[in-house]
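Minutes, project check-in
Item: structure for the 452-residue chain
Input as provided by the requester:
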Amino acid sequence: MNVEVRIPAGTWDALWQEVRREAPYEPVVFGLVSDATVCSKRLILVKDLVIPPEGLLESGTGHGARWPAAYNIALINEAAERNLGVMIFHYHGGNRSVQMSTDDTQSARQLIPAFQLVVRDRPHGSIVLGNNSVAGLIATPGSIVLDDRIRVRIFGRTITSHPRPEASESDRLLHRRRPLVENKISRSILQNAVVAVVGLSGGGSQVATQLAGLGVGEIIGIDSQRLEPENLKASDEFTRMDIAFRRTKTATVRSKVRAISSKTRFTPIKALVPEPQALTALKRADIIVGSVNNLHARVDIQEIASRYCVPYIDIGLGIFPLDPEDEFSEIAAIGGNVLTCIPGGPCLWCAGILSKQKLEDENRLGNRSYLRAALKEKRDKGPTPYVATFNSVLAGLAVADAAQLLLGYAPTLCFRKQYDAFTGTVSEMSVQKDESCPHCSVVLAAGDLRWS
């Protein structure tokens, strides 16, 4: 079984700083990890870090560090109490590919079985981090074999995966300086990428076709509905013939994707989130793009994305009348949001997109229309607004963020973009992670649900 270790953004920053700290020994950091099974792959998700207190570590034999046996007992007890596995991290400098030293291997073969004795149903391991590579040994639940075939995925302004694609130095230089120019590395990254698009009515259908043009290897389209006449006003990807034959949205978008790129596979999922078929598909995605018309769907997508450490790009559009009680009221604003949630960064709850009050209001008013503030009985019977143009702008912004995560063409990644359709402008808005956010503290990197 393939093994992939995923390290959220804030966790990675603290880990990378600590293991490279100057010391007379190799600094060691312990990770407490959950796990999940995705098809034939085992995900190992770093939930928390345990940094040994100052003065505990000292130089051991060779170049490694050692620590008292009592600390091992305390560490194992904490892991057992939280039902999490233990991962040992340290750092080797230089630009060459790192390897587990003899000392590293011996230490792993002594400690990992001890961890397994106490926490049997979680993975354990030891990983050495390098500047451009990683190496390690992992034991999965129920196995005594230490596997060195591991991948590590790190989240920040981009997604960094190890091992990196094989390429010449000239290709690496070209990709580093001009990542949007087609080269061996960018082509490999895009062809191996899996992007799930939830909701194919308006912006989502246009996201899918733009991803195909970008060269993404697989697009998972999740939508349970058939096309209706009003969909023609929400996206330019549909035709009158599609409506006449009442084609499913997934079948229609699949035809469009095939016409754009013969190398892009479109996987249709006719289900709702979080139905099992949709959940299975989302778990294996590298990026999720959500284009849904209600907050409760966003709650489910955000939880899945956080639980399995998958970046989530959410897009939404609203038309706001001056007077919500007047069906003939003038329009006060037409606005949209694109919010990119990186595992370990601010989530939809931190940004205020989701709140208990908003969910209660949605239950009470049932508002799932582009015309956000209209009365329900008028909105359900009223005409559908023309929003295809506005959706295309949001779709382009979402795909640009997906490209940034995959290729890293920009020096920074703005978490939230605000679109004003009246002025045709896009503003970047600062979003800070709420350290008291219960969603981030509980759900992030939680992995598969466990029933005790």
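Outcome recorded: The CA atoms of residues 63 and 432 lie 40 Å apart.
No further action items on this chain.
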